[in-house]
């Protein structure tokens, strides 16, 4: 029987159990939070991103989740600088061209406010009175390095905060930051 662990990864935590570099208190790993032997992340979530990380001991499942050829949908809550225009959001829906080629079309919508159940981030996102921000929900079916951040930058709206909310059918619902549960 395979095990699937859902973890709400806090900001600043590496998506691995060990750090290849010298020990540093500012480079936390999954080992600080998850004590389930034999599970490994199915895909990655950057150190400066938060949210759902799926871990499993099932190699084929891990490949289905992580391999972009499988087109497993991943949904992100993205806080961006300024309010994206309808044209900017349409560009994401059509697919934008990054340095490593065009992206697949994304599903995107402007959110009415902060995502439901949003926790405070430590450290907090920089706040500028003169520059508004906005939350968008973005769903992609690939997983290139820092793809969401590069996509929002391409349309002129740099990412301030990035939270992965959904991977396939799994979500963050009911999962506090820094906490894991078996799926």
From TrEMBL:
Belongs to the pseudouridine synthase RsuA family. Residues 4-153 form the Pseudouridine synthase RsuA/RluA-like domain. Pfam families: PseudoU_synth_2. The keyword Isomerase applies. It comes from the Bacteria. Keywords: Isomerase. This is Pseudouridine synthase. Residues 101-123 are annotated as: Disordered. GO terms for molecular function: catalytic activity, acting on RNA; pseudouridine synthase activity; RNA binding. The keyword Isomerase applies. NCBIfam families: pseudouridine synthase. Its EC number is 5.4.99.-. Transmembrane segments: none annotated. GO terms for biological process: pseudouridine synthesis; rRNA processing. It is an enzyme of class 5 (isomerase).
């Amino acid at each position: 029987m395979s095990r699937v662990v859902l973890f709400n990864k806090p900001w600043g935590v590496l998506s691995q159990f060990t750090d290849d570099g010298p020990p540093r208190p500012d480079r936390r790993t999954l080992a600080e939070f998850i004590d389930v032997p034999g599970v490994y992340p199915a895909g990655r979530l950057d150190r400066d991103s938060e949210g759902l990380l799926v871990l499993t001991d099932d190699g084929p499942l891990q490949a289905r989740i992580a391999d972009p050829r499988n087109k497993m949908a991943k949904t992100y809550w993205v806080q961006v600088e300024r309010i994206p225009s309808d044209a900017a959001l349409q560009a994401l829906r059509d697919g934008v061209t990054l340095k490593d080629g065009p992206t697949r079309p994304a599903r995107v919508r402007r959110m009415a406010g902060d995502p439901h159940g949003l926790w405070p981030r430590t450290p907090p996102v920089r706040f500028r009175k003169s520059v508004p921000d906005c939350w968008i929900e973005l769903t992609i079916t690939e997983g290139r390095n820092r793809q969401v951040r590069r996509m929002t930058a391409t349309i002129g709206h740099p990412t301030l905060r990035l939270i992965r909310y959904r991977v396939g059918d799994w979500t963050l619902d009911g999962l506090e930051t820094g906490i894991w549960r078996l799926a």
